Amino acid sequence: MSWLERDARSGDEVADRRSILVMTDTAPAVELAGLTKTFGPVTAVDGLSLRIAPGEVVAFLGPNGAGKTTTVDMLLGLARPDAGRVRLFGGTPADAVRLGRVAAVMQTGGLLKDLTVGETVRMTAEFYGRTRPVAEVLDRAGIAPLADRLVGKCSGGQQQRLRFALALLPDPDLMVLDEPTTGMDVEGRRDFWQAIRADARTGRTVLFATHYLDEADAYADRIVLVRQGRVVADGTTAEIKNLAAGRVVRATLPGADQAVLAALPGVRAVEVRGDAVLVRTDDSDEVARYLLSRTAARDVEITSRNLEDAFLALTTDTPTTASPTAQTIGA
Amino acid sequence: MTVAAPSVPSAARADRRPPALGGFSTAVLAIEIRRVLRNRRTLIFILVMPAVFFLLFGLPQRGQELPNGRPVTAWIMISLAVYGAMVATTSAGAAVATERALGWSRQLRLTPLRPPAYVATKVATAMVLGLIAVLVEFAVGAAAGVRLPVQVWLLSGLTAWLGSLVFAAFGLFVGYLAPAENVMQFMGPILAILAMLGGLFVPLDVLPHALQQIAKFTPVYGVGQLARAPLTGAGLDWVALGNVAGWTVLFGLGAARLFRRDTTRV
C-alpha cells in the first residue's frame, strides 16, 4: 500500500513544515496523538493523530460515522479518550476553554428555547473573563435583527448562527465547527458560511468537521480525510484535489510496455494488473489514440475522476475492492 | 492560503483570563429570573394558584380564630406562602433537568463557567422566586384583610422563604436525576401530595391518626410548622426542626452527589 499510508503518516510532517513557514515558536493549535475511543465493540476513533498549526483552516472530512464528532468531543474535552492525548496550544482542552482560547459550534442542541437571541448572547458573555461586545458578535453572525426573538422561534439556520455568535464571544484562537450546516437548506448553508468567511480574522485557527465535499473544497486550506476513525489522507486542498485530477484510461492489453506508455505526454502513472493496463493521465485522448492505433489493446475505457471520486475511494468501507486505483496510482 | 499569514494569537490576546467568581454574576441572575417569569405556566403555579387557593379556601374562614385569638386566615395564608415558595424553588432547581435535556449543560461546558457557579445561579434564582411567591401571597392576604403584628409577618415570611431552600435542593436533586424536559409535569402532583401531608392545605388533625404520624416525616411538614410557629406561638418545635434539617441534608447531599457525577462525566 502506498499513498494512503504514506500520506496519513506525513500529516505531522506537513504541520511541521508549516510551523517553520510561519516562523512561530508557539505550540501547535491542535495536537492529537494516538487518539482512541471505543463504545462497546465499536472503535469510533482508532489511533488518530493530527497536528494543526496556528492560522490553518482545516476541514475534517469524512462520511457519517467516520468518528469526526467523537474526535471533536475529545478535542474539546467533552469526552475522555481511551488512549492518546489532546493538546490545544500546548495545554489541556480545559485550560483552553477556561481562557476562552477555543470555542465551538456544535451540531445540534445546546440552546434555551425560552431565552431571546440577545439574552442568550448576553448571558453567555458573562461566563467569560473578557469578550467581544455583544452587539459586535450579533452583527458578525448576521443575527442582529433577531436579537429580540425567542430562540425557540428561530429557524435551524438562525439557531446555528446564534451558536456561531456565542463562539465568537471570547474571540477564540481556535474555532471548532462540528458539521455546522447539517440540516440547513442551501440558502441557510450559504448564509452561514458567509458569516464564517466574513469573520475570517487573520490568525484564527479553524477546524470544521463536515461530510460536504464542496464545503471542504470552498472553505479549507487543508483537508484531513477520515475513515473508520483514522486519517486516510491529509494535504492541502490542491493536493487532495490533485489525487483526483485527470482521467484513467483502462484497456485489455497483454504484455503492455509500461515504459512506452509512461513516456506519452500527460501520463502520470501506469499500472499493469494481469492483462489489464491502467493509465492515469491528463491527456486521455493521446493515450487512447496510441493504444488503439499502435497496440492490440481492446476494451478501452476512459473514466474521469473528481474530488467526489477521491473522497469516495478514500472513505469507502472496503478500500481494497472499491478503490484499487486510488491506492496504486501515484505509487 | 493562511499558511503565510502572520500568526500571533497568543501575543495578541495576552489579556485572556478566566471569569471572576467562576462566571457567577447578577446579570445572569437577572436574565434567569426574567426567563422564568416569562413562562406563563410557572407564573400560574407559583403566583396565581396559591393566591386563588387563599381566596377560595381562606376567605370563607374569615372571622374564625385560632386558640390564641389570631385569625385562621393568617394560618392559611402562611401555609399557602410556604406552598408557593416550595413550588417556586423546586421548579427553579428542577430546571437543570430541562437544560440537561436540551444540551445547554453541554454547551456550558464549552465556556469557562464553573459548575459550582452554575448551581449557585440556580439556587439564587430559586430563592428569588421563592421570595416573590411569599411576598405575593402575603400581599394578597393583607389586601384581603389579614392583620398581624409586624414580627409575625417578618418571622413567618422569613421562615417560609428560607425553609424553601430545602426544595431548591430537592429540585436540583430531581433535576440531576431525571433528564426530562417536562420534569415539572410530574413534579406538580408530587408537590401537591407532599403539601397535603405537610399540613399546608388542611390541618393535620383532620387526617387519620396513622397518616398524621407518617406526615411528620415528610419533607414539607417541618417548614410548615416552623413558618406558622410565630403565628400560633407554638415555640420551637424540635420535631419540625429535625425534619427540616434532615431533609435539607438528604436532598443537599443527593443533589451534590448527582451534580458531581454529572460534571465528572466527561
Automatic annotation (TrEMBL), chain B:
Species of provenance: Micromonospora coerulea
Residue ranges of every copy of the ABC transmembrane type-2 domain listed in the record: 41-262
Keyword Transport: yes
Transmembrane segments: 42-60, 72-98, 119-146, 152-178, 190-211, 238-259
Superkingdom of this protein's organism: Bacteria
Family named by the database record: Belongs to the ABC-2 integral membrane protein family.
Pfam families (alphabetical): ABC2_membrane
Protein name per the record: Transport permease protein
Record keywords: Antibiotic resistance, Cell membrane, Membrane, Transmembrane, Transmembrane helix, Transport
InterPro entries: ABC2_TM (IPR013525), ABC2_TM_bact-type (IPR047817), ABC_2_transport (IPR000412), Nod_factor_ABC_transporter (IPR051784)
Membrane topology: Multi-pass membrane protein
Localisation: Cell membrane; Membrane
